[in-house]
Amino acid sequence: MIKSQISKRISLPQETSTETIAESSYRRIRADILFGRLPPGQKLKLDNLKTAYDTSISTLREILNRLSSEGLVVAEGQRGFEVSPMSVADLKEIAELRLLLETHALEQSFARGEMEWEARLVSAHYKLARMEQAMASGDTSHAEEWKRYDWEFHQALISACGSKLLMEAHAAVFDKYLRYQMVALSYRGAVAAQEHQHLLDAALKRDGETAKMILVAHIQGGVEHALAKGPLP
């Protein structure tokens, strides 16, 4: 059953003060799915959601249909909605698509990136590295901040690619990949941190070939680590 009091949420990207109630509710529910607070397969009963998110039934229907179009919710006809299930095949397909999009965007971003891009990248990596240090110490209370800064770093890497559509497509796939990581709470420790550092170094050198090889190992390693932790929910 969905709790009436929802804990602190981190949405990707963060909420703004000018959002409508409907947009804010959408982002809150979406974040709760991505971070596993609404687990795979959970029935999304409108009455419970209305209480938990203080949102009207009609608005909730619109939100859930929107999330269904994104693949995060399954619409069951007259039976309502549920959080999309997980599978090994789905995770592998998401990882392959992320790799396809991100390697292409990296190539474009490295060719076009200027000093402002480098500054964004260094700043994003600094924040991620601090969170990785906290996670490495065994403090998993920062798991959501860790993944937000991970998202920001990978977005910074491709932010000079010159294509808004490519950025949006990558963000959507990355979020689905992130959901698997959060549900499995899959942190690879020093290996992942080193890969991020090497990605930063390659980016600042504009070494696209090295960056793509690191990214392949980074994403494939994440999948293997998540699956090694046991069956998916």
TrEMBL record:
It comes from the Bacteria. Keywords: DNA-binding, Plasmid, Transcription, Transcription regulation. Gene3D superfamilies: GntR ligand-binding domain-like, Winged helix-like DNA-binding domain superfamily/Winged helix DNA-binding domain. GO terms for molecular function: DNA binding; DNA-binding transcription factor activity. It holds the Pfam family GntR. SMART domains: FCD, HTH_GNTR. Residues 19-86 form the HTH gntR-type domain. InterPro entries: GntR_C, TF_FadR/GntR_C, Tscrpt_reg_HTH_GntR, WH-like_DNA-bd_sf, WH_DNA-bd_sf. Signal peptide: none annotated. This is GntR family transcriptional regulator. It comes from Rhizobium grahamii.
